[in-house]
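Figure caption, in words: inputs first, then the predicted bound structure.
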Amino acid sequence: MTLLHLSLRHFIPSSLLSPSTQNTHHHRARFKPRASSSFPQPNPKNSGVIVIGAGLAGLAAATHLNSQNIPFLLLEASDAVGGRVRTDKVQGFLLDRGFQIFITGYPEAQKLLDYSALNLHKFYSGARVYYNGQFHTVSDPLRHFWDSLQSLANPIGSILDKLLIASTRIRVLSKSDEEILSSKEVSTIDLLRKLGFSDSVIGSFFRPFFGGIFFDKELDTTSRLFDFIFKCLALGDNTLPANGIGAIPQQLAARLPPNSILLNSKVVSVYFDDSVSDSASPSVRLENGEVFRSELGVIVAVEEPQAAKLLPGRSEPVKQKGARSTVCLYFTADRAQVPVGDPVLYLNGSGNGIVNNMFFATNVAPSYGPPDKALVSVSLIGMYEGVSDDDLTSEVVRELSGWFGAPMVGTWRHLKTYRIGFAQPNQRPPTDLMKNPRFGSGVYVCGDHLTSATFDGALVSGRRAVEALLSDRALVRS
Ligand SMILES: Cc1cc2nc3c(=O)[nH]c(=O)nc-3n(C[C@H](O)[C@H](O)[C@H](O)COP(=O)(O)OP(=O)(O)OC[C@H]3O[C@@H](n4cnc5c(N)ncnc54)[C@H](O)[C@@H]3O)c2cc1C
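Bound structure (flavin-adenine dinucleotide present):
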């Protein structure tokens, strides 16, 4: 018998469990049971807390429960942990499911992750912008002083723009994360204009750079997120783990007790089993009919559209705002057939074409490909529905031939295309990046739709859901 299958009452005095029972009955009307009787009743298994979804939010929740010695079961619909943060191995290459960067300055990540075990490889601090048919390097003066002196004269922004970048850095560093995430908000584009940035630097640098982070070319995303990311970029490096971005959730999962994660276990309903007289917490039913009963509560850590399906009555902001989407195309090349060896991010500052950003992943982390091969990663913003993969590939090759020359790009071989319909929830104003994780009746919610749509936001949301649950169950003081 594993820890999970023992009743929680073996671990926690029943007096500590009782306050929740009153709360539960109070809220139950709001949380209507789904028709559980229409299914044959298998033997329900008991777990302290049930966490649904093993993305970063669910894994963070499980990590915090584990650190408090609270038994839990983590149920994941897919065949691996990570959610949106996964890496596939294809023909000896590591393909992250979409272009993702891990910023070491993320504050919650610093508390939860072992950076040295991730073997993080740094990007160049800055970017190379394709503008007017030429490349121009934009550098972080604190990390690449001489490069940044040279870049003072380039056409990517005026001297005033460069001074404004420095003052923006000072402004965001002077604020706490809480202040930033709850500050008065406008869209990023309005903030940049209000701060006095020129149209030229907005178009050639901010639009492809932050547009690529938010999957939002218009820069409608809240200024809160802009400030938060700007601050994290100032405090840390852009990196990739040697084993792919999926190494981040895998590190969290590896620290959890054996058998505490069930993969291929899609939850179809969260409900109260009224046939159990002392039922104070919800149960969950899997697609295959299996039932798990929680004793302390259920944490729903699924992406926003799925949360709306599992939690009746929860509004569906995705429908109102539309999700952020991206397409990522991978190509392989001989290592001699790429134009540079440095780990720099290329941005399309030309205002034309479909490529937003690209980079040579094997220049950042050589482990992303076999020793003699280079991996090229190209990102587009949006889904390009109605355009076939073949047509997208041809267009990308045509466009990048204009950047690097047709003889070189013509040798690249298309490897795989990822179309990611739901990359991030839409975070244009109005936003609430510190949403209450309490759904009611022993049900808690976490995920990047409660905080900032970042790795860090997802990790924070998992912790907050556990803190709320433990506080409601009188297991800790809030
Ligand atoms: C292409 C791309 C690039 C990104 N780049 C960055 C970046 O560079 N930096 C950054 O900070 N952030 C980035 N993000 C955002 C970041 O990945 C997300 O904000 C974060 O990973 C969300 O984690 P989550 O746990 O909230 O949700 P998810 O990762 O979506 O996890 C939800 C989990 O729930 C599971 N699930 C869903 N329904 C059920 C069910 N019914 N039963 C059981 N399980 C279920 C899913 O399978 C999934 O594993 C990027 C996202 C994408 C897609």
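The pocket of flavin-adenine dinucleotide is lined by residues 52-58, 75-78, 83-85, 98-101, 266-267, 301-303, 306, 310, 326, 420, 423-424, 447-448, 453-455, 458 (CB under 6 Å).
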